[in-house]
Amino acid sequence: MQKPGNLFLNTDEIKSIAGSYLPVIDIDGEIHESWKELLPLKNTINLSECLEILTKISHDITNVEQNKERVCKIYQRLI
Asked: How far apart are CA 70 and CA 32, in angstroms?
């Protein structure tokens, strides 16, 4: 179990970049605005987190094809 401050919002963009490599809150649907104000969930992925994902992807030999699009999205964010 993660503390809310360590979890990311479950937006489509964050889920597509983070995948299973970063902790994204696991609920169906979007979080209501009132909960977003109460819970200190992260709403963006920063540079160090992008690099962390890339490092984890580089060690994940079982999901190479699935990670190609994710790597492209990360590099697009970095440039």
From this structure: 27
What distance in Å separates the CA atoms of residue 74 and residue 28, rounded to the nearest whole number? 24
The whole model's pTM is what? 0.86
Helices of type H across the chain = 12-18, 33-38, 47-58, 64-78
Q: How far apart are CA 7 and CA 61, in angstroms?
A: 25
Close Cβ partners of 27 (under 8 Å, ≥ 6 residues apart): 10
Question: Across residues 35-61, what is the average pLDDT?
Answer: 93
- Tokens for 44? 């963006």
Non-local (6+) Cβ contacts of 72 within 8 A are: none
Q: From the CA atom positions of the chain, what is the Rg in Å?
A: 13
20 secondary structure, DSSP code: T
